[in-house]
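Internal tracking record. Fields below are filled automatically when a chain is submitted to the structure queue. Please do not edit lines marked as system-generated. If the sequence contains nonstandard residues, flag them in the REMARKS field before resubmitting.
Queue: standard
Priority: normal
Entity type: single polypeptide chain
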Amino acid sequence: MSGELVTCIIPVRDGTRYLDAAITSALAQTHSSIEVVVIDDGSVDSSAEVARSFGESVRLVTHEHPRGAPAARAHGVAITHGDLVAFLDADDLWQPDRIERQLAHLRAHRLAVSFCEVGNFWEEGFEHEADRWHAAGRVRGSYLFIAALARRAVFARAPVPLHHPHMDSAAWILALREAGVPTGLLPEVLVHRRRHATNISRNAAAVYDDVFEILKARLDRRRTSAEEARQPA
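SYSTEM-GENERATED OUTPUT FOLLOWS
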């Protein structure tokens, strides 16, 4: 069991500034059976060169044109074969024992997906935002793609959502729940999410649009199920 291969999928687009640190944190895991796959989603900077600098330790896959982070994650799942899958954004970092701790959590509770907690940290110059977040109690996240360690079979039941780039984690959580996938939360900060000027989540209007679309789709599915249940046998 200790040798289960974990696939780490890192989508990146123009992430030269942070990618080296992200890859290094994945390769530094105490769980030794890990493959790191970088999906370069149409970068025009030197992200690909950063990935190549790690040699055979990192597999690089390139998209000629940007498809978006959800599509990059889905592509990574499709072309790899690890027993388990974890995601790392190119500007974030893993604790060295992230995979080891979540594997133990999966096994102890017979889960298909283990979520950990995610701690935020801010680049220099964003102290004012950090103060606001801390005052509001927004110091951690949990049910996010970057917090998940999932058995590969999960993605046949709940594929990576492709149509909600700003709220893909929420869409996937709902899909897991509707598919009856056993999930659990390990209440430990094992992933560190970098907050900076180019975070995609800063696009508030797009986030709200995705939320409304996700909720509408869920209501439509429930309505259809209720109507089907009322049909005579």
